[in-house]
Amino acid sequence: MPAVSKGDGMRGLAVFISDIRNCKSKEAEIKRINKELANIRSKFKGDKALDGYSKKKYVCKLLFIFLLGHDIDFGHMEAVNLLSSNKYTEKQIGYLFISVLVNSNSELIRLINNAIKNDLSSRNPTFMCLALHCIANVGSREMAEAFASEIPRILVAGDTMDSVKQSAALCLLRLYKTSPDLVLMGEWTSRVVHLLNDQHMGVVTAAISLITCLSQKNPDEFKTCVSLAVSRLSRIVSSASTDLQDYTYYFVPAPWLSCKLLRLLQCYPPPEDGAVKGRLVECLETILNKAQEPPKSKKVQHSNAKNAILFEAISLIIHYDSEPNLLVRACNQLGQFLQHRETNLRYLALESMCTLASSEFSHEAVKTHIETVINALKTERDVSVRQRAADLLYAMCDRSNAKQIVAEMLSYLETADYSIREEMVLKVAILAEKYAVDYSWYVDTILNLIRIAGDYVSEEVWYRVIQIVINRDDVQGYAAKTVFEALQAPACHENMVKVGGYILGEFGNLIAGDPRSSPLVQFNLLHSKFHLCSVPTRALLLSAYIKFINLFPETKATIQEVLRCDSQIRNSDVELQQRAVEYLKLSSIASTDVLATVLEEMPPFPERESSILAKLKKKKGPGTVSVTDLEDSKREGGELNGGGERGPDTAAMAASNASTPSPSADLLGIRSAAPVGAAPASAGSLLVDVFSEAGPAAPSAAVNDDGFLRDLEQPTETCDSLLVEGSGDSDSAPPSEDPAPPLPEADELLNKFVCKNNGVLFENQLLQIGIKSEYRQNLGRMYLFYGNKTSVQFASFTTTVSYPGELQSHILFVQSCSCMFRNQYTSENWDTACYSTSPIFAH
Amino acid sequence: MIGGLFIYNHKGEVLISRVYRDDIGRNAVDAFRVNVIHARQQVRSPVTNIARTSFFHVKRSNIWLAAVTKQNVNAAMVFEFLYKMCDVMTAYFGKISEENIKNNFVLIYELLDEILDFGYPQNSETGALKTFITQQGIKGQSQTKEEQSQITSQVTGQIGWRREGIKYRRNELFLDVLESVNLLMSPQGQVLSAHVSGRVVMKSYLSGMPECKFGMNDKIVIDKQGKGGTTEDTGKSDLGGGSSGKQSIAIDDCTFHQCVRLSKFDSERSISFIPPDGEYELMRYRTTKDIILPFRVIPLVREVGRTKLEVKVVIKSNFKPSLLAQKIEVRIPTPLNTSGVQVICMKGKAKYKASENAIVWKIKRMAGMKESQISAEIELLPTNDKKKWARPPISMNFEVPFAPSGLKVRYLKVFESKLNYSDHDVIKWVRYIGRSGIYETRC
């Protein structure tokens, strides 16, 4: 750019600026600015035309005032006038003002665009560059509309100067980023790609940024750039450091261009053409070789440039993931960096290795560095590097080294930085579960985890350990013993108390034989923690106590005493109070058989994806997890919540709910999913036992969720133990199709019949079952509606109603069939056939 | 209580720094500078909270005084102290400026030691302070032990503001009633809000320990006397020249110097006191009813097209023709896109001040019951800004020789039983000055 000659230095501007800088206070500054503004206004208003120099000076002053933070609402016209000047400095100031202060004022924009157009079509390269810079700086939609078609022409024209080409490429990139729909490459595509072959390295560097951006959007159109990029890369890589003159940076030939080329190649899969691929592999090898060479300079810039290319090459190798040889070499190279004294290099090496570890070819190679990584985790000063080390350990973990890694991570956890503790805890929990061969090891690990970093152990972690303990018979005894021992510590974390309460409540009997852990000792141990815990934990402990009554009748008196004391039975917390009252009653009224049924051991949980994993994904941020994953994890968490925490008291709570429709009705935990399926089943039979004097109980095997529900609907009817079965999904769905899992809402749907007669009983992707019922004295009428939600017809659709023998004569079936069409105009086929079955029964 | 006190210059450099409590660290100094003095947006609130530390500041010309505390102190007390501190400094070395503060820093530290103890304000009476903090250098020899002990007993005694044994050949006292009148008026001449805040400042040169009694036309006192039927004429009324003939005024609230016996005021509403020697402020008060507005401003603004504005302003004086108002200044705001102004005025001088975006019209003197007029033509530069000009109010400054509240001093009696001079021997001077506070008329 032409330097500003001495005569062009604006004295008035310099004086003004120094005046402002010398102002002693804000007020003085504002006064000075007001004075200057008034002066400029009177000058612009004045009748005699201003010459270019003074116009430029005043526009400059306005710009300066604007940059100080004051509003400028005039002078735009004068700035636009400057654009048409022939002097570089005046034009430059004009463009500067426009790019800083332009607003979408219609008439001005038209004038500005006109001036820009004139400059673009002029032959003067500096003017063209100024215009292009202005377009790029403003980058508004209006600009894009006006010039998006013009700029590609300038970019590929044969007679355009190199500097203009650079500006044009970058300007186009900017416009493409702000309004991609307006920049249509179309016919220019191939010529733009061929800019990679341009003689001038600056043009290539500018063009490659544009191409990378464009090819990310439509890779197919720019496919040809791969071979050109490879050949360009190989020319650069193989060139001597002196070949490229201006573009050699501290003995590294064109480092920026190389990085950009490598990044462009990462947009595409490995080239199919063997020759191109060979050449590329050669390039990558050369880059890896060069990394081994002794540095040509001691300057940090030299090594930075070299390493930048190397890391970009390694990420390309990882991206291709097809060259075992290269992958292993990359891994070895990174391994050297792991012990480099530059912290940034170590960080980058750890980060790249994380991705390398997931590749099957290099996994083993990564594993050889385990000692170094563990060392890094322990000794690094920078927390972000330690975090990367932890990530890498997590990534390189497999069955062979799980024990070592988990042990290391656990020991590190004690001193770990607070910001990464929660993530570390999740990782340890996942690894321990994933690679557990021996479940006693798993239990030990998790309990250790809770002990070391209790505050950072999220709910999911201890839910999971309980799920696993319940599902595995072999560890239950061991778990009970370990938990008992862990609880003996004078201060233990609340999460530990939760786990302890749950496990001892379930499996305390397994260790009761030992006099050191006799039932009373167990109870006293748990109760000693009771007062230090929060309300949810206390609630859980109360449930554990009632289970103790069931497991060890000898503790009954002690526990009843505890339940009866004022701090429980008159607790200000409703939940605790209700539990205390109900458990007390339950333990004093119900016979041991009933207790045993109500407080049966929990059924195994269904196997499912670990919710901890989902949580970790969520923690890592939305960048790595898709939205559906997140939703999954939420739902998973929700279900687990019910299954894990509320599980233990489901049965007991069910009993109370039948008699008192309390607000905690959702505690029933009635779910069509299996986890607590058996609990309501037993509750169903319990109901009959407890609340009906008449003996004939329905065989509990025959009672499924729905049957149980019918009982609840109308407690007065339950004494007749009328059970209508037949709305089960397996019956109604066509045999050819697997019944889809019920929608999550299904659970709530069932619950609402506790106090309602009508509504949707069941719904999944195939079928909707509605129920409508009326009861009048000794008569009851029940309608069942079956809705087909699919577009195909159901074949051989049958419903079965089972009922106790003596009622058979009283039941009258009325079957009707009606067809209903909904939403005919939507694309989805929603024609729903509604069948209703309405048994009318009387006795 | 106050944890520390800092004085900064306009650049935020610390001139004086005195920390009284341990909870205020050195970084508090920087916190105030960064967050208040150098704040990107001008800080308007006098109290700023930074990291659970409260900063109370007042600004005198370019000097910032900031009191810092971590406790929940009485903000009014802190500000009262800061103002008092300003008064004390002014009494010692004149105007508060960077130069003066730098030249007197030893004195200021000495004063700070005396008037603030562990953050608790102490005696800040200038007269009393001057007896033991002097500017004449070391006078160790001239002050005897007895004198020093006398100072101690006086400062810690019941009447801390006056020492014994003062003697004047001429017993004289000066009484100034200083009022500032604040007004906001609609363009149609309707009073939107108005109040007068006034001060009674006294300068006394009296011998011995005189007992004084001050009387004014306070409505409550006058009414009570009227009921009692004893119309006691003191002969000292109507010293001023207020135009209204009303007999009494309603005082909304008032505060007194510590020398006034409040118990007596509460029970009898009489103001009696033993005055400090020299100048001090006897009372402060505020009235809102029946204010005499010395000037009326009548604005006329006409927009002629987009590029021209015609402004005509008439001011009318509203007091006895025999009185003269002084230092009259009318400030007419101009739009932000003013490019030129032509002004014509009959009286005084008017000028467009671009740096303040206003036309300033100055008149030296103006008698009562007169009127004067200014007309201006303002040329505007068309802008692409759609914002309309907000038309700020026209403001005014003046000084008149009467009290706009209508307050009159009825008497000021001096009793000194021990020395042989009586009330009649004291020479008394009373002066009324009414100034403009924020005196604005919307246009």
Overview of the structural elements:
The complex is a heterodimer of chains A (about 850) and B (about 450). With about 850 residues, chain A is mostly helical. Helices cover about 60% and strands about 5% of the residues of chain A. Chain A is built from 40 helices and seven strands. A five-stranded antiparallel sheet of chain A has the order 3-4-5-7-6. Chain A has a two-stranded antiparallel ribbon with strand order 1-2. Chain A starts with 10 loop residues before the first helix and ends with a strand. Chain B is of the alpha+beta class and about 450 residues long. In chain B, a hairpin with a 3-residue loop joins β14 (about 295-305) and β15. The longest helix of chain B is centred in the N-terminal third of the chain and has 19 residues, at about 75-95. The interface of A and B includes residues 25, 35, 37, 74 and 103 of A. Chain B: One of its GO terms (biological process) is intracellular protein transport. Chain B: Keywords: Cell membrane, Coated pit, Endocytosis, Lipid-binding, Membrane, Protein transport, Transport. Chain B: It holds the Pfam family Clat_adaptor_s.
How are the SSEs placed, and which strands pair?
The complex is a heterodimer of chains A (843) and B (443).
Chain A: H1 11-22, H2 26-45, H3 52-67, H4 76-83, H5 88-101, H6 106-121, H7 125-138, H8 141-147, H9 150-156, H10 162-178, H11 189-193, H12 201-217, H13 225-238, E1 248-249, E2 252-253, H14 255-265, H15 274-292, H16 300-320, H17 324-337, H18 343-357, H19 363-367, H20 370-379, H21 383-396, H22 402-413, H23 418-434, H24 439-452, H25 459-471, H26 473-487, H27 494-507, H28 519-530, H29 535-551, H30 556-564, H31 566-569, H32 574-589, H33 592-598, H34 611-619, H35 627-646, H36 650-659, H37 678-691, H38 705-713, H39 729-732, H40 746-751, E3 759-763, E4 767-776, E5 779-788, E6 811-820, E7 832-842
Antiparallel strand pairs in A: 1-2, 3-4, 4-5, 5-7, 6-7
Helix pairs in contact in A: 1-2, 1-3, 2-3, 3-4, 3-5, 4-5, 4-6, 5-7, 6-7, 7-10, 9-10, 10-12, 12-14, 13-14, 13-15, 14-16, 15-16, 15-17, 16-18, 17-18, 18-21, 20-21, 22-23, 22-24, 23-24, 23-34, 24-26, 25-27, 25-35, 26-27, 27-29, 28-29, 29-32, 30-32, 34-35, 36-37, 37-38
Chain B: E1 4-8, E2 14-19, H1 27-37, E3 47-50, E4 53-60, E5 63-69, H2 75-93, H3 98-103, H4 105-115, E6 116-117, E7 120-121, H5 126-132, H6 145-156, E8 172-185, E9 191-205, E10 211-216, H7 219-228, E11 253-256, H8 262-268, E12 271-273, E13 278-287, E14 295-304, E15 308-317, E16 324-333, E17 338-345, E18 349-353, E19 358-367, E20 371-380, E21 394-400, E22 409-415, E23 427-441
Parallel strand pairs in B: 8-23
Antiparallel strand pairs in B: 1-2, 1-5, 3-4, 4-5, 6-7, 8-9, 9-13, 10-12, 10-22, 11-13, 14-15, 15-20, 16-19, 16-21, 17-20, 18-19, 21-23
Protein name (chain A): Clathrin adaptor alpha/beta/gamma-adaptin appendage Ig-like subdomain domain-containing protein
Organism (chain A): Pagothenia borchgrevinki (Bald rockcod)
Subcellular location (chain A): Membrane, Coated pit
